[in-house]
Amino acid sequence: MINGDSPTSDRQARADWIKVFLSNSYCKAEEKQQWSYYGRTNAKIMLDDGVTRSIEVLGSTYDLKSLHFHWGSPNNAGSEHILDGIHYDCEAHFVHKNERNGVAVIAVLYEKNAGINKAFNPIVDALPEIVYKGKRVSLPSQLHLQQLLTQDSENFYHYNGSLTTPECDETVSWFILKGINYIGKTQMAPFYKLRTVTETESHENCNLVNNYRLTQELNGRIVFSPK
Ligand SMILES: [Zn+2]
């Protein structure tokens, strides 16, 4: 849950104090870029291409380690954050760590629409290969992070909270980008087909859907925004 440890009256001062920026290499797509896709409960993409992608939070550098998604089901939205009362269809978490194992997460919200967001193509193309738990595959083409973020990546809400996945309960600096990105309806569909079981286990009623936790609603919480 959200840890509101700073008074709201300090909002502006705190907003000025928090300086976050993406390093120049953050969105770099290296030729040898290799992303591996694990069939875990949140479809995690580990970054292992040797490129350092970092953000700076209060003078501490956090390197991007992995990226994963939360989604709903064909008739249910699946974002973990609700912005202005809207529960969006999908949410990406860009997970960063600093030297002291502190965690900073950039969250991006996506709305389903009739278009195609090309940035999702490498991910969506790989989904049929990792339908079952424990599967892993390299993405078939380069992932362009810039297009998975929003155009103004410095326009965000910030609060300190915890990770929403059970394996991590350490304190996390959250940055929820205010701009809403999108994912095509047809691109979202393969996410709903992932299974929570291995290939040899029973497949009945085991689609990986609604893998979100609504513990991070921003309404009424103490949050900070630099803009
Ligand atoms: Zn997450």
Automatic annotation (TrEMBL):
Name of protein: Carbonic anhydrase
Q: Which reaction(s) are listed as its catalytic activity?
A: hydrogencarbonate + H(+) = CO2 + H2O
In its UniProt entry, the species of origin is given as Nephila pilipes (Giant wood spider)
**Which keywords appear in this protein's UniProt record, sorted alphabetically?**
Lyase, Metal-binding, Zinc
Output one GO MF annotation: zinc ion binding
Q: Which gene encodes it?
A: Ca4
What Pfam family does this protein match (any one)?
Carb_anhydrase
EC number(s): the record gives 4.2.1.1
Q: What residue stretches are annotated with the Alpha-carbonic anhydrase domain?
A: 1-227
Task: Check the record and name the PROSITE patterns matching this protein.
Answer: ALPHA_CA_1, ALPHA_CA_2
Give the organism's phylogenetic lineage: Eukaryota, Metazoa, Ecdysozoa, Arthropoda, Chelicerata
